[in-house]
Every structure is written in C-alpha cells, then in structure tokens.
Protein: Diguanylate phosphodiesterase
Amino acid sequence: MSRDHVQPAERPTTEGATGVSDAGAGAPYLELLARDAPVEAYEQPVLLARAEGGPADRIAALERAKLLALRVRSELEGRRRREAELSALFETAHDLAGLRDLDAVLQAIVQRARSLLGTDIAYLSLNDPARGDTYMRVTEGSVSARFQQLRLGMGEGLGGLVAQTARPYVTDDYFQDDRFQHTLSIDAGVRDEGLVAILGVPLMLGPHVIGVLFAADRRARVFEREQIALLGSFAALAAAAIDTANLLTETRSALAGLEQANEIIRDRSAVIERASEVHDRLAELVLRGGGVHDVAAAVSQVLDGTVEFTEAGTAPAEPLEASRAEGHAVRHDSDWIAAVTAGGELLGALVLRGHPGLDPVDQRTLERAAMVTSLLLLARRSAAEAEQRVRGELLDDLLDARDRDPRLLRERAARLHADLDATHVVLATRLDGPAADADEEAAARRRLWSAASHLAATRQGLAAARDGGTVLLLPLATGDTATDLARRTARHLGTAVHQPVTVGASAPVTDLAAHPDTVAAAYAEGRRCLDSLHLLGRDGDGAAAEDFGFLGLLLAGERDIGGFVDRTIGPVVAYDERRGTELLRTLDAYFACGLSPARTKDALHVHVNTVAQRLERVGRLLGEDWQSPARALEIQLALRLHRLAAPRRH
Structure:
C-alpha cells in the first residue's frame, strides 16, 4: 500500500477538520457564555469573520458554534429560571410552615408570582359562600381602587369562570375574549387597571374551589405552559396557607373554648366550695338555735363585709319593696338589701353595708342568708305565738280584770321581759284599706295581729286583739313622744301588712301594775284618737290624745266634722282655693292676736290696710255677725278642725 494511499486516512477528514475548526470557532462563544452576554452579542463573531473575509468553512463553523452556544445559553436560562422558581416555592413553603399571619403569607405569594412571571400585576380572590361570589383579598401592583374592591359573581368575568369550572384560564386580550361573561362592573374595574392579558388558576382544597390566583399584564402577552404551571404551584401553596390558617383559627378557637370551660369549671368549683361553706355554717347556726343576728354575723365573715338585720320600717322603702317583689338582693347606693319575707309578709331585711362590687356568687349568698333568716323567724314564730298568747292574756287582764294582784302582774310581765313600772303608751290600731270579702278581711286582721305581736315582742311590750283591730302597750323611750310613737307604729304596721293602718295613742301612763284600771282608760283614750283620725280623713296616720286637746271630746262618736267645717267657713275656704288668697291664714292670725288688726299685721308682715281689706272680704263671705261671740267660737273651732284634717307634714 503506497504512502499516498494511506495519507488521506491519516489526515483529518473533512468532518474531523470541521470539528477542529468548530473547536477553534467555539472559543469566543465560550467567553460569551461565561460572561452571560445578551443574545445579540452572539452574532458578533460571525459578522467579524465575514467582515475580515474569512474562509467559508471558518464562517460555517462559527455559525454552528453560535447555534450550539445559544442552545446552551437557553438551557442555562431555563435552569436558572427553574432554580428561581423552586427557590421561590421553597421560600413560600417555608413561610407557610411558620404561618403566623395569613395576610402576610398571601401577600408574599402574590409578590413572588408577579416577580417570577414578570407581570405588571398579580392578585388573589377568595370565594364568599354567604354571598355566592368572589372578592379581592390581596393585590400586588394594582393602582385602581375600583379594581381592588371588585366582587365577581360565579361565572362572571375570567375569575368567575375559573372559580366556577375549577380550571385555569388565560386570555391574551381580555376585552376581545368572548369565552366568559363580561359585566359592566368587572369590565370597568379591568379598564381602570388597564389590563389586557390575564392568567387565572384556581385555589383548590380537595375538590372545592376556594378562590383564584391571577397574573396579568397591561399589554398583549402569551403565557407559556411553564408559567401556567408555576402559577398553579403558587395557587396550591396559597390554598394550603388558607387551609392551615383556618385550621389554626379553629384550633385557637377550640383552645380558647377549652380555656374558658376550664375557667368556668374553676369558678364553679369555687362557687360550690363557697356555697358548701355557707350552707354548713348556716345549718350549724340553725341546729344550735342561733338568731337572725348570728346569721348576719356569719354572712359578714363569708362576704368580708358588714351585714345587718333591720326591721322593715327602718330599711329604705323602694329597694326593700323591689327586693321583695323580685326575690333577689337589690343594690342601693353602696349597700345591698335582701328582703326577709314569709309568704306575703315582710319581716325585715338583711343589709350588706359598703360593698357595691358584689359578684353574683356573693349576691346569691346574701339571698340565701335572707331565706335562712326568714326560716328562723318562722320557726321562732311558732314558739313566739305561745308567748304572744301569754302577752295577749296579760294585756287582756290589764284591760278587763282590774283587781289583779300587782305582784303577780309584775312577775308575769317580767317573764315576758316587760316592765310595768316603766312609762308606757296604749295604742289602738285598725286596718283602713278596703277588703274584697270576709276571708280577705280576716286574713288582713291576722297579718295585723302577727305584725303587732312581733312588734310588741321586739319592743318589750304587750299586744292583744280587740274590737276588730289590735291594742298595744309599748314602753316610751326617754325624749320620745306619744305622737312620734303612734306615727312610727302606723308606718311599721302598714309596711308589714301592705295596707294602711291607723293608730291612735293615749297620753303616757305609769305605774300600771299598781293601777291596772289606768290601762283601760288609756285604751279608751286611744280609741277616741282613732275615731278622730277617721273623722278627719287621716286614715293610715298616727296621732296621740295630746294632738287634739279638748277637741278630742268633740270628735268622739259619729259626727259630721266635714259638714260642720263646710257650713262654718266653707265660703272662705272656697274663695282661697279659687283666688289663691290667704283669707283663712289672716282669719286664723286675727283670732290668735286677740282680734287686734295691728298685732295681726305684725304677725302676717303685711300693712294694716291689707288686714282690714281681708277682714272686710271675710265679713262679706261669712255675714256681718261673724265676729259675734257665738259665731267667733264656731269659726275658731272650724279653723282648728280644718287644720287637723289637712295632710300632716313630716
């Protein structure tokens, strides 16, 4: 075989030669790849070779190297893009793993989607099951307030179509696309934002669509399949974030509910313990025969305050009545008042002093103490009824049996803690409210008798039923008057029986054991006062014999007091009422000043001519003989009766 024949085989073939040339031609493109030059730069080596008149095979090699370099560059760009996408997805997943603020995570998803897809705007909408539409939740790059507040009905607009079909949709030109339903409100929002190309992918939780993730441009654009897939990945992460947030919310709500339940259990446990403590202490008091004041002292310790038992007449009327009606303790200023009742009878009240911030548990404790107090009072009433009968028998003996041995009377009174040697007042009481029938009247009398007996027992006195009412013999405290005692008794008994009670009192009496007949005389005097109050229209009031003087004799019996006053001075009374004048006052002062106009004008602080004019008017109303002795006596008596019949002032 000749050397020339072998030579071509040893020399590089055209392909081999081309490969060597390609390797030489690839050097500038490697440099371009290394510095990540733009696409335009890859034309420069070919253009330069042609400008220099290089051989065709050299230029062809450069063309092939250029194409290969561009393929490598495209592959590198794709890998960098996928790396950025994976990094963004990883960061989003990391954010989701440490989810604290759902809005912040959704905002980050929208921001990264916009950045990676290179769009002008990205936004996310969520479905509203209550309203049956979708609404904007997060936007990034939006400049239109109307667009940010859009709501899309199911099937309306591109987003409504995605939400309804659970499939991605993309439009290169929104306003020229008729695949979805256009509405004025949605189109106006899209137009305000200037959007043209829009891509929307559904947010899925299982088979359910909960919203839509969008990427949009303000120019025509074709979204590639990889970009649609990338936005779908972000949508999956957004759905997971929403689901996680919902689960966290439910978990926190459940934890809060459990905490609240535990708190309630702890509170109830404390309530049960306190209630058990109160029950044990009150039960112990009842078993060992404690009284109402012992109950008040025990509750004072439990409530860490001052609790007092007061009579019905001494507690504030309005809150006491409210407590009785409602069956609960009632706040009054800084105090709490719990009525102590037995049936329809008001026995008194428990008052918690200076404790305005009472919680429901302590309020219930005070109410329970009031119930125990009423039970104690009822239990003691059974024992007290026997004592009341004994008190009634003793008072009956003082009223009827006037020849009793004073020593025996004192001993009987001492056993009842009464002192017959002290100063007393005899009070005659009577119910004045209307009764519907005989049974109601009898029940009212029993309540009056019970209240009077209780009052007598607590005041170291005596009480007895008599003449359709009750009679009481009560000691008179130093500095007190029979009138004050009568009025207090009327108020107390009226409050206890819930209807007016009129009380007439005698003058103070003493030494009752030695002179038992004094009690009967005093009772007769109290009855006359009672009749006088009734004749004067002062039912429900209290007064003593000293309030009437000699008029008490005139008022006794059935006399027409009102008719007498009207016949005697009625024209003057009517004139004053019509004209607003002071003829009655002038007439009263005139008699009080000994018929002297000069002294009368000083008493009234008016001019003497004014007195003369008023008396002249009186004369025209009553007649010319109104100053005669007989007429003057009648007029003075009528004036006195008119004053007595007027409403009293406390």
